[in-house]
Specification:
alpha/beta, Rossmann fold, Dihydrodipicolinate Reductase, domain 2, 8-stranded mixed beta sheet, 9 helices, 21% strand, globular
């Protein structure tokens, strides 16, 4: 029964305290609320912005404020888990200051491009870091169930995976994206590509286009189309539009997963009326049967953010055998994103008009 699949990553028996590196909005809105809900302790914070790190410590009762990553590493060593929540370009400057052998959660994306991802991977190897990347959507209750259902044969042989978004995203909330040459795929749809890999496997190749839109001035891309090549049996497709102006009525944000014996629909609730969001949903229908909704224990925001940290804590303690979104696996997601950008540089097949 699809309702019996685990929806939450198990909690660690003896969690270590957490040091936050970076005091930005995602830490306030998701990391710290999720850790509090999971019963995890945050013992320290550092950020280049003095006022921001002190405000975070004050607002969330974090006892220690460090002036630098090096100071935090010297004070804490490997007795803590490091949560590196910084822009992608800063990751390679931070990892060298962490203790060798430390357990580290790295904010997605894993660098701004595949070259940076490769450098991050090498740093983690050289320093023997127990490092994972915060691709948290694959840890959400809905995607946990979807992955187990596909892998457990609930829908038969997998045939179709489609991600479809037609939403309105308030881009003014993210001014830091304006100067970036890579936006939609690298910052947003990377979550979907990563979850596609977790549920459906890594494709052999891609065709992709990601475009700007005059309704989102100044942003490099806010619309994306991706075709994923899985050979002759499986079909993967992703269609993303962040600029729908017609209100809620015909907005949509879902994964459709079909196989030879059944289908799954997953609603991405956070995408509607962001950042307020709606509830996530998961529906299952066996061939010839009726759709039924599977009750969920939580949503992408914020419950999914518990998963990567729990998995890292358990791996560090020897309770988990592997990191579900470790840097070696996350590198493959970055390679898929890079392949999309490479495909964008290739011309389409020209029509033979004569």
């Amino acid at each position: 029964m699809i309702e019996t699949f685990a929806q939450d990553w198990p909690a660690p028996a003896h969690p270590k305290p957490i040091v936050i590196i970076g005091a930005g909005g995602i830490v306030r809105d998701a990391h710290l609320p999720a850790y509090a809900k999971a019963g995890l302790t945050v013992c320290g914070v550092t950020d280049l912005d003095i006022a921001r790190r002190e405000a975070l410590a004050r607002d969330f009762n974090i006892p220690q404020v460090f002036s630098s990553v090096a100071e935090a590493a010297k004070a804490c060593g490997t007795s803590v888990i490091y949560d590196v929540a910084v822009p992608p370009d800063a990751i390679t400057r931070i990892l060298p200051d962490l203790p060798d052998g430390a357990a580290v959660l790295i904010q997605k994306p894993m660098g701004a491009d595949l070259g940076q991802a490769r450098a991050i991977r090498q740093l983690c190897r050289d320093k023997r870091l127990k490092a994972t990347v915060n691709f948290q959507l694959r840890f959400s209750p809905m995607m946990m169930v979807a992955r187990q259902a596909v892998q457990g044969g609930v829908i038969g042989d997998p045939l179709e995976l489609e991600v479809h978004l037609n939403i309105f995203t308030p881009w003014h909330l993210f001014p830091f994206l304006l100067p970036m040459p890579r936006v939609e795929l690298l910052v947003h749809s990377i979550h979907y590509l990563d979850s596609i890999r977790a549920v459906f496997g890594t494709p052999k190749g891609v065709f992709a286009r990601s475009l700007p839109d005059p309704r989102a001035p100044g942003l490099a891309q806010t619309r994306t189309s991706v075709l994923l090549d899985y050979g002759d049996l499986r079909r993967g497709v992703m269609s993303i539009n962040h600029n729908h102006q017609g209100g809620r009525k015909f907005q949509s944000a879902w994964f459709r997963i079909e196989g030879t014996t059944g289908a799954i629909m997953v609603k991405l609730g956070v995408c509607f009326d962001y950042p307020n969001g709606e509830a996530d949903e998961l529906w299952f229908c066996p061939n010839g049967g009726d759709w039924r909704q599977v009750p969920l224990t939580g949503s992408w925001f914020i419950e999914a953010f518990m998963g990567p940290m729990r998995n890292l804590q358990r791996f560090d303690a020897g309770e988990d055998a592997q990191l579900f979104s470790g840097v070696e696996d996350a590198f493959q997601t970055m390679a898929l994103v890079e392949a999309c950008f490479d495909a964008m540089a290739q011309p389409g097949v020209a029509l033979q008009a004569d």
